[in-house]
Every structure is written in structure tokens, then in C-alpha cells.
Amino acid sequence: STKTQMEKKYPAIAGREKGPGPGRYGLPPTTGFVGHDFTKATSPAYSFHGRMSDNMYCVDSSPGPRYHVDAKITRYGKDGTPAYSMLGRMKAQKLFHTPGPGAYSPEKAPPCNLQRRPPSYTMGARTHYRSTDAVPAPNKYSLPPLMGSQIPNKPASASYTMSGSFSTGGPSVDLAKTPGPCGYNSTDPSVYLTKQPAFSMLGRHNLPRDSTKKPGPGTYNPERVTVHKARAPAYSLGIRHSEFVTPLVVIVSD
């Protein structure tokens, strides 16, 4: 076709035609006896024979230790230790039904032989009031109070009253308006006594220094200095080259 004729045909590269890998070849095994590699030394080979029949030495063979031997059987016979079992409760017979101690109530029996008996009481229902009994209850009465001096038949203590304060003329009213102790100003002791030395506290003074900003230790990168120190090898990643490129051979003349 026209498309096939226009395509550029490149010559076949022999390097691209690679042979099969090691897994394509089947070498003879070096273990066993059958099919062993004849170029290698062969060790002796042994086989496992099947189990032989028991008829050659005993025709009637008894089974193995598959019988259950009771643990109470010894070589002298059965063990003589007494054994006990727990059975269910037997049903009570109707002919002999004897009551137990809890069936009796001796406290309900009448007194015998002039025995003393505590009194017993019963609680009956509340009785209804009769219409003819118009007697008031105890809480209907009100007793006179015992506080104050208004009780004629009871002794009373002295009674006092508290009156209000008077605006004028009373003892709490200061007509002269005399100032109190806090109304006077205190005199400085330095006026009439020897004056003590006085000190004042000023603010902190800053020392003169350079106000420009200095870089800290973290600003420097000493690991990048390679002028006077050994430098670690550095690698770069290039492009992938074809494995079929012919290397450059330069003929150096003597």
C-alpha cells in the first residue's frame, strides 16, 4: 500500500535479538537416581519398603490396647475403698406424716399451772362521735399569753419600751459641731524632729550600644561552605542513552 511504502524502513539491529533466559533451558536434576545428570556424581539411593504382613510370625493376633480398664481394678482385684452416691429425696409416706418442731405454736397455748401471761391488746376501729356529746376538743381552747404585764393572775417582770431618736436635744445630736480626731491634719515629723535622708527611685537607664539587628546562629549555613573544606560528592541525573549507540573512539597519535 501507499502508507507502507511511505514508512521509512530501518535496518534490524542485532542487539535487539536476544536469546532466551536461563529459565528456558531444562537441565537434568542432580537429586534422585532416575534421570540424574550423568556429568555429576551419584550417591547411593535407598527406598522404603511397605509394611510386611503379620501372618509370617502370628496368625491370630489380638487387638492393641483399646480396651477400657476401670481405674478401680488393681492387680489384686477391685479396690475396697467405700464409694458413696447422692440420690434424690424420697417422697414422704402418707401413713406416717409426723409434724416437725416448726408446726407447733407453744406461745398460743393457754397458761397452765398458774403461769404468768403478759397482757394482750387488740386494736379496734375508731368509734363515731355521738350527736349528744358536743364537748370541744383540747385544741379548741386558747390559753392567755404569759409574756407582758397584762396578765392579772400571773407575776410579770419589768417591761421596757424602745422609743425613736430625737432630731434635736438628744445626746446623739452635736449642737456645737466639734470636729473629731480625723478632722485635724497630722504634722510632718521632719518639722519638729531631725529630718532623715530621703531617696528617690528613678527609671532604668539603657547602656549605649549598637541598635542595628545582628543575624543569629541559625541564619548561617556552614554545611554549604566548600571553599576551604572537603566537599561531598554531588550527582546529577541525565537522560537515558540508547544501548546501541556506537561509542566515540578517538585515535591519539603518538
Residues in β-strands, percent: under 5%
Shape: flat
**How many E-type strands?**
2
Q: Which ranges are low-confidence, i.e. pLDDT below 50, for 5 or more consecutive residues? A: none
SS-based class: little secondary structure
Helicity level, as a percent range? under 10%
Protein name: CIMAP1 family member D
GO cellular component, one term: cytoskeleton
InterPro entries: CIMAP, SHIPPO-rpt
Pfam family, one: SHIPPO-rpt
Structure description:
The structure is a single chain. The chain has 254 residues and is largely without helices or strands. Helices cover 4% and strands 2% of the residues. The protein is built from 2 helices and 2 strands, in the order H-E-E-H. The chain has a two-stranded antiparallel sheet with strand order 1-2. The longest helix has 5 residues, at 2-6. One of its GO terms (cellular component) is cytoskeleton.
Write the layout of secondary structure elements.
Blueprint (H helix, E strand, L loop, with lengths): L1 H5 L66 E2 L2 E2 L110 H4 L62
Can you give keywords for this protein?
254 residues, SHIPPO-rpt
Task: Provide a quick synopsis of the model.
The chain has 254 residues and is low in regular secondary structure.
